Amino acid sequence: MQLKGAQIVWECLVREGVKTIFGYPGGAILPTYDAMLDYPIHHVLVRHEQGATHMADGYARASGRVGAAIATSGPGATNMVTGIATAMMDSSPMVCITGQVGSRAIGTDAFQETDVTGVTLPVTKHNYLVTRAEDIARTLREAFYIAASGRPGPVLVDITKDAQQSSCEFDWDAAAPKLPGYRPNLRALPEEFQRALDLINHAQRPLILAGHGVMMSGARQQVLEFAERAQVPLALTLLGLGGIPASHPLNLGMMGMHGEAWVNNAIQQADLLIACGMRFDDRVTGNVKTYGLNAKKIHFEIDPSEINKNVKVDVGIVGDLREMLEDLLPGVKSADHSAWLDHINQMKGDAAVLDIQSLPDTGHLYAAHVINDIWRYTEGKAVTVTDVGQHQMWEAQYYRHEKPRSLITSGGLGTMGFALPAAIGAKFAMPEEEIWVIAGDGGFQMTFAELATIAQENIKLNVAIINNGYLGMVRQWQEFFYEKRYAATPMLSPDFVKLVEAYGLKGLRVTQRSEVKAAVDEARAHPGTVVIDFRVEQEDSVFPMVPAGADLHAMIRRPAPVQVDVMAETGADLHAMIRRPAPAQVDVMAETGADEGDWDLGATT
Amino acid sequence: MAKHIFVSYVEDKPGVLNRVASLFRRRAFNIESLTVGHTEQPGVSRMTIVVDADDLTARRIEANLYKLVNVLRVDDVTGKPAVVRDLALIKVAVSANNRTEVMQLADVFRARIVDVTNESVIIEITGTEDKIEGLVDVLRPFGIIEMVRTGLVAMARGAVTVSPNPPLVAAAIPQPAQTDMAGVAMSV
């Protein structure tokens, strides 16, 4: 059938299963917007194109399907770059469609012309410039295929205005992808697994490092079967949270810069690290020269270029994680690692008493309390979408995720402003779920224009602003590493309650811990979006912390319990106790030394 | 660090050279030379890429090249039986007194004189990098006015046919120390 390029765009999107698209119109994409009205796709008008990409990203992470965003040429497209880079770093499947000036105007610095394929080349999995209507169908089919297959990622399709306007024959079946050089379905040969099995079946202190790949390949069952049969404890990356239930007895929790001490120490003491769908990011390893020196390493990974990139491994196996584990499982023997598990539990017991949750309630409002209370009152069943910073780390520590895709967060790129738009996208993917946005006062102000999108679309979100009047994580680094010289981190914010009321939404403010439950309950009961301004302790810090580039076991730990007792007994302000340990006061080696027990930690000597 | 020579087949599409060059730039791989041209197959171009890299980095480069959707095949021909050639055009300042001497030198290197004026000659030489460096060294005292080199092109020796787009390729897992590089079946 003879169709215009603009119509072909929508014919393809409908056939690719797109129900919702996030976008912003403009001159070069106008023909496509005009055709949109005739197709059964819901368009969400964003307030900034960055929001459209985060929404498509959030939609993709919540659903596992490809998210779609659309914008015009020039500034519309460049505004998308941050969201595309965010999706790229976290392997989120997304297709972005941008209008481009007419093909004959390309290269003339025409109005709103930008070399969008050039600009987005390093931050997309692949991208296209389409100058003929005849090429639109195949290109879009390839784009969706590439975005979703192998290691997923964002694909951008830039379509010139004349390609949208001209007509051609549309034949979906004839436009099947032609990608001779694209090989996403890697599969390791069976003999590859023997070397891995030899290591696994002989390990004394094995540890599984579970990442985003567990969720993306749907390997939860296989990982658990493996862990349970061989009695191997699991440590999770930030993006891996929810991939394995937090309540599972073998799940130790999050690793890395703000991971729990017992997790990082277990990594350093293990004799075998089994990485499953994770990429040894620097926030996970700390100093790679001293990372897991006691351990042999096996890396199950879908992307060959990740193997031996950051950490040298003994066995690297490429493929889809679930398929690999299915091939591996028949050879995994039952094992008893109770000495190793007991040792970890002992470390855990020591650290737990330092936990902020065990501190007396003095009435002060701490972000960790707020997040832990939200977890408690939502019974851990909400989907949380976080921004980037201290609150993100507290969320990872104090909201315990049981199910996959219940935490949506920008891990790799660390994009402030991600949370609110990503939550909007997630809501369209899972309208029945209770969604909580957890954002700082800084990040919230980067993209809060999307409150108008929420109002226009009439969707229900719960938003917790962890408002400490600082760019908290940067302030924490300034406190620890820059002698408390707070350069440009104190931050004035508007009255968030009034602000959200101006959008016709409900705003609440909480300043005392005793008010948290009522506010959370009220937000959950309200049919529309509610934003709660939690005025939390201003100079609180996230513990434990591995300073950037430091050894993984060289953590700045939570305040010592003896201090807590003294303070509590003398009735001193909790505030005074929480701010203490500047790095100079912390004898890092002595602390980790106490945790090392009988295990030989070659790295430190 | 050592020199690695990659021969890569890529789809002949707009922007592919940019994708390859961008990859080397953003991953901070040192590119020494890159040549690109047609092959015997329509729609397939062939690149010879010379990089300064240790073995592990070379494997990472290979793996990253394979991630590019338009890249069909990558072979590291370093250390394998292969013909490797560079072509240079060298314009040398001469006078009536020393022109014969320059021409004799060119002859020794089996180079050709392709242009002669009263003040200069252009010498064309094809060969390995060492051979060209040798000629350049002996010509330098006469005064080199300008020089251009193509960068290396390479081809494996022997009659074995190489499919530009094989269904089965080495997994390109960066594992320098092991010869038993993982075999992985890849299918589209």
Structure description:
The complex is a heterodimer of chains A (605) and B (188). Chain A has 3 domains: 2-175, Rossmann fold (3-Layer(aba) Sandwich), CATH 3.40.50; 192-350, 3-Layer(aba) Sandwich (Rossmann fold); 367-539, Thiamin diphosphate (ThDP)-binding fold, Pyr/PP domains (Rossmann fold), CATH 3.40.50. Chain A starts with a strand and ends in a 9-residue tail after the last helix. Chain A is built from 26 helices and 21 strands. In chain A, strand 16, helix 17 and strand 17 form a beta-alpha-beta unit. In chain A, helix 1 (5-15) runs parallel beside helix 7, helix 3 crosses helix 18 and helix 16 (367-377) packs across helix 17. Chain A has 605 residues and is of the alpha/beta class. Chain B is of the alpha+beta class and 188 residues long. Chain B folds into 2 domains: 2-81 and 157-185, Alpha-Beta Plaits (2-Layer Sandwich); 83-149, Alpha-Beta Plaits, CATH 3.30.70. Chain B has helices at residues 16-26, 55-67, 99-108, 129-139, and strands spanning 2-11, 30-38, 44-53, 71-76, 82-93, 112-116, 120-127, 144-149, 153-156, 168-170, 183-187. In chain B, the strands form 3 sheets. In chain B, strands 5, 6, 7, 8 and 9 form a 5-stranded antiparallel β-sheet that branches. A 4-stranded antiparallel β-sheet of chain B has the order 2-3-1-4, with helices on one face. Chain B is elongated, with a radius of gyration of 20 Å. Chains A and B meet through strand 9 and strand 15 of A and helix 1, helix 2, strand 4 and strand 11 of B.
